[in-house]
Amino acid sequence: MSQEDYAAREKFLYTLEWLLAVTKRYSGELHFGLAHINYESANILGETFGAQQAAHKLDEVSHALRRAFRKTDLVARDGADFWILVPFSPAEETLVDKISYIIETAAEEGLQIVERDISIFMLPNDAAKLDQNSTALEFLAYLKENHILLADSELSFPARP
């Protein structure tokens, strides 16, 4: 990952922890969207592109996503996964449409040959009531593991040769 990716990830985690704390304190007052983009696995990316090229492609997608979203939306990369935090999100339909469009646009950066699954969470939800002492990373791991139960929307973009 590039230095920019590390800095973006730290900013993302800090902001998410702050939003989770505010959400717990003022339940129901603050709403935001969180999207998880799963590019299958790092192994499949490595087999498809080769390790160095896969890392380069992930950096390109990371930069493309950051350019595509607003300055107030945060994009973080965690391995082959991407998380997008959209504070004060509009209605769910608009968020789903926006993310779908942006992912299709980012696919032109070269990762369209690998299947992409996207889970969109409108928060707060039951997951936001996770243990008071859990970190942002633990919260993201919980969402990723339980996305089928917790996601408000699931999108899948098939691989294209």
Structure description:
The chain is of the alpha+beta class. It has a single domain, classed as Alpha-Beta Plaits. The chain is built from 6 helices and 5 strands, in the order H-E-H-H-E-E-H-E-H-H-E. It has helices spanning 3-25, 42-49, 51-68, 92-107, 136-145, 147-150, and strands spanning 32-38, 74-78, 81-87, 116-123, 153-157. Strands 2-3-1-4-5 form a 5-stranded antiparallel beta sheet. Helix 3 (51-68) crosses helix 4. The longest helix is centred in the N-terminal third of the chain and has 23 residues, at 3-25. The mean pLDDT is 79.
Topology, element by element:
Elements: H1 3-25, E1 32-38, H2 42-49, H3 51-68, E2 74-78, E3 81-87, H4 92-107, E4 116-123, H5 136-145, H6 147-150, E5 153-157
Antiparallel strand pairs: 1-3, 1-4, 2-3, 4-5
The gist of it:
The protein is an alpha+beta fold. The chain has six helices and five strands, in the order H-E-H-H-E-E-H-E-H-H-E.
What key attributes describe this structure?
161 residues, alpha+beta, Alpha-Beta Plaits, 6 helices
CATH-defined topology? Alpha-Beta Plaits
Count every helix, treating DSSP H or I runs of 4 or more residues as helices: 6
Radius of gyration: 15 Å
Name the shape in a single word. globular
Lateral strand order in the biggest sheet: 2-3-1-4-5
CATH homologous superfamily descriptor: Reverse transcriptase/Diguanylate cyclase domain
Low-pLDDT windows of residues: none
C-alpha termini separation:
26 Å
> How many structurally independent domains?
1
Q: Which range does the strand content fall in? A: 15-25%
Helical amount: 40-55%
CATH architectural grouping: 2-Layer Sandwich
Overall structural class, as computed from helix and strand content, comes to alpha+beta
